[in-house]
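ok posting inputs for the zinc ion job
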Amino acid sequence: MKRAKKQNRSDIEERVQEFSRLCRKNDLRVTNQRLEIFRALLETVGHPTVEDVFHQIRTILPNLSIDTVYRTLTLFENHGLITRVQCLSDKGRFDPNLENHHHFICVRCKKIEDFYWPEFTDYSIPDEAMKLGMIQMKKVELRGICNECRRKGRNAHQKKHS
Amino acid sequence: MKRAKKQNRSDIEERVQEFSRLCRKNDLRVTNQRLEIFRALLETVGHPTVEDVFHQIRTILPNLSIDTVYRTLTLFENHGLITRVQCLSDKGRFDPNLENHHHFICVRCKKIEDFYWPEFTDYSIPDEAMKLGMIQMKKVELRGICNECRRKGRNAHQKKHS
DNA sequence: TATTTAAATAGGAACTATTCTTATTTAAGG
DNA sequence: CCTTAAATAAGAATAGTTCCTATTTAAATA
Ligand SMILES: [Mn+2]
Ligand SMILES: [Mn+2]
Ligand SMILES: [Zn+2]
Ligand SMILES: [Zn+2]
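and the output
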């Protein structure tokens, strides 16, 4: 999982500070683990898994427990500070980007990339769909092969079973 | 997981027959297990999990192994006979509906319902997104609370952790 | 129809992701 | 500083999925 280049260090520190305030507002104690976990989300592109976050932080907090990462990410999710992204693979993935955006999922490496499509918000859903329940969110999902995987070619991916 | 009312028995049997031919064309042996598994997918609404399928068929094939269900569904998927649906929960879900359609996911009971939106196909994706890779599929995903869960009220759902 | 054989299955073990339990540590308020 | 409830680490437990292998079976062939 690569580090992002799109956000520089001071942008990230600013968001971590803001996050710190948000924690206090939500009656969540500000622990080192929590800050590092949130920072790791911001620093990673492709919507990291729990393991991605865990391994990245182990260098800084060598006896971090993986359970803390699970617990903390679910906590953030329950407080609306991040969202959980569906998995095409079997691992949960998380998203610190709360802006209205959409996803491109690479079916080979399972990486998830963001994109924006402001006009989509204006398109109205068919009646048939409106009747299914109370809609809280509408998103577009693209599936395909990411540029990185296309470069690598057909190797380096394994399917399960047959 | 409820049985569907939208497809009657003869519709289903017709699709099972057609499926049987498709298996032969794909050099897949037509076994009782495979037919029952495919039939179970057709008979169930809400995009069943492996366990849903397993339990439904156990009454007919009492010593069906759960591994066979996993193996078979993945096999069908690899041959393009069904698709795998992303999980908001932790379980894999499967979809025998290969038509171009979209999903409404209930965040409470995790049920996934189909809807159709033909016009969506014509909307063109922003350039930004086109550059992410080779796009194979574009879908809309709605999240919310299904009618059934709304009726049941706030009880009957548990969140993990805190 | 009987025989053959590679493919498919059942059953249980193994593996992997996630959650739970409990003793210890710590943030934050007094 | 103290106090204390909240958070954590470590490892056990659980749940979903895949692997292993002896047995069964679909379907091609005689
Ligand atoms: Mn995102
Ligand atoms: Mn569907
Ligand atoms: Zn990729
Ligand atoms: Zn529901």
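notes: Chain B touches chain A through 48 residues (CB under 8 Å). Residues 29-31, 50-51, 66-67, 70-71, 90-92 of chain B lie near DNA strand D (CB under 10 Å from a C1').
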